[in-house]
Amino acid sequence: SAVISQKPSRDICQRGTSLTIQCQVDSQVTMMFWYRQQPGQSLTLIATANQGSEATYESGFVIDKFPISRPNLTFSTLTVSNMSPEDSSIYLCSVETGTTEAFFGQGTRLTVV
Amino acid sequence: GQNIDQPTEMTATEGAIVQINCTYQTSGFNGLFWYQQHAGEAPTFLSYNVLDGLEEKGRFSSFLSRSKGYSYLLLKELQMKDSASYLCAVKDSNYQLIWGAGTKLIIKP
């Protein structure tokens, strides 16, 4: 199993600013995943963060808007840049260990005003 | 495209049984997962099926038919704390998780 500490748990931000979300895992993992979940919606994968290489972004998400860092095997950050109200959502980090299941951080509830 | 369908919302009575269905169309299949998500919280793992048949885990069971692209989650002896959203997810040929929109389950006393 894996325990993920994600912060902040929530934030209210002004449009045009940026917010960096951090995830710390209690074990070393190869891949970390960043998701967005809008109210009542499915989880949408933003990108996969690999240690030592550039993150892989899904269609509709770009590095300039969602830069990701992965300095080591236990830590990653996602930045939401130049925010607009459309970025208001829950952001989740996730890892998959040697087993099949995914583990999630507690989520960051972002409101852009 | 890839698609996972599950009902948006279901209502059931405390102590009863409820079945939440999930149908999927994905490019490849490497397992199907069910997660529980309480409001404002992160999803937590419930079950995993990769072979056809029924997997039982306490009050929860999950069934898979790969030929039909179909799964269900069965919850028995419902408790009020089971009120949550239940997410169906499939790993495709690239081992990427494809998520359904979730089924909001409302339990009434």
Give the SSE map.
The complex is a heterodimer of chains A (113) and B (109).
Chain A: E1 4-7, E2 10-13, E3 19-25, E4 31-37, E5 43-50, E6 56-57, E7 68-72, E8 75-80, E9 89-96, E10 102-104, E11 108-112
Parallel strand pairs in A: 2-11
Antiparallel strand pairs in A: 1-3, 3-8, 4-5, 4-9, 5-6, 7-8, 9-10, 9-11
Chain B: E1 3-5, E2 9-13, E3 18-25, E4 32-37, E5 44-49, E6 53-57, E7 60-65, E8 70-75, E9 84-91, E10 97-99, E11 103-108
Largest interface: pair, residues per side: A-B, 16 and 21 residues
**How would you describe the shape of chain A?**
globular
Low-confidence spans of chain A: pLDDT under 50, at least 5 residues? none
Report the principal-axis shape of chain B.
globular
Q: Give helix and strand order of chain A, one letter per element, not per position.
A: EEEEEEEEEEE
Cα gyration radius of chain A (Å): 13 Å
The largest sheet of chain B is: 6 strands, mixed
3D structure, described in words:
The complex is a heterodimer of chains A (113) and B (109). Chain A is mainly beta. In chain A, 0% of the residues lie in helices and 52% in strands. The radius of gyration of chain A is 13 Å and the shape is globular. The relative contact order of chain A is 0.34. The model of chain A has no long low-confidence stretch (mean pLDDT 93). In chain B, 0% of the residues lie in helices and 57% in strands. In chain B, strands 2, 4, 5, 9, 10 and 11 form a six-stranded mixed β-sheet that branches. A five-stranded antiparallel β-sheet of chain B has the order 1-3-8-7-6, with no helix packed on it.
